[in-house]
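tool=predict chain=A
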Amino acid sequence: MKIHWTTGTYDYLKKLADRHREEKTVLMESAENALLLHETEGKSFFQYPRSYEVVASFNPFPDEGVVVMHHIYVQEESKPVLEYESLRLSAEMEGTQGLKAVRFLKPVKNEPYLFLSCWDRESSCERWEQSKTFSAWREKVKGMEKTGHFFPKSDYKAVYYIVKEEERARE
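tool=predict ok
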């Protein structure tokens, strides 16, 4: 399974998703932009996608929720360890209160790894991020990060919201 994604304005990505209704897509937005995920076995319909292989996954994306994307830049030799630790974390997360879906994604090209988790609300995610399990995973990941002068990018977290169209129309 692969996930491809692209960013743009909400209205443009909504039209793009509507043209590809037969595909599995998830449209979400943040304060800065919108993001459209395309989950498929095949190629993306995006012109310039960011493409990932799904390493770990459980539950389909819901119609609404909070998506937290941890972008993780790691050294080449640390990739197998990150994959192992993230698979373990994914398995441990199942059954967590408020958690709706998880995807751990390996980049096809020179992009960061992504750990996506979808929650019923931000407070559920915040509670999870304060847990000992998450803290231990973050400490391991920090030891694998690309840092220093030659690696100017560092890990970061982005938060997006999957909003039902009828709720968005009421705003």
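The first strand starts at residue 2 and ends at 8. The first helix runs from residue 10 to 19.
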